[in-house]
Design brief:
mainly alpha, 57% helix, 4 helices
């Protein structure tokens, strides 16, 4: 009887690339929404003004056209950036500012209570 040892799908190269791409896409989306909030406000302001201008030309679909265009451009930028970062071999685990992806063990701090100066040294009188 012959026992063959195949590599599981979790250890394959394609799985690692797909995981890296998905983590980059999620991270860049969150960073764009949280850190880039002023940019989002400016983009939406320009979008509202563009839809008002296009309302006279395309009365039924101006808002759909502008909002779809903005969302598709932002989505394409995030996907393209994720593809470039994955293709260059930059893994999300290696980036310092992504601390939540690091598997380092955190040092636990002892809790400090407000009453500790009053009660902690009471046996020293």
């Amino acid at each position: 009887m012959q026992v063959s040892n195949q590599a599981s799908w979790q250890s394959s190269y394609l799985f690692a690339i797909a995981k890296s791409f998905l983590v980059w896409a999620f991270t860049l989306t969150v960073c764009f929404l949280v850190v880039g909030f002023p940019v989002v406000v400016v983009i939406m302001t320009v979008g509202v003004l563009a839809s008002v201008v296009l309302q006279s030309i395309l009365p039924a679909s101006a808002i759909v056209l502008v909002s779809g265009g903005i969302l598709s451009i932002i989505s394409l930028l995030i996907v393209f950036s994720s593809i470039v970062l994955t293709a260059k071999g930059i893994h999300p685990d290696d980036v310092k500012w992504l601390g939540w992806l690091q598997e380092e063990e955190k040092t636990t701090l002892k809790p400090v209570y407000a009453s500790c100066p009053l009660t902690c040294g009471i046996n020293q009188f």
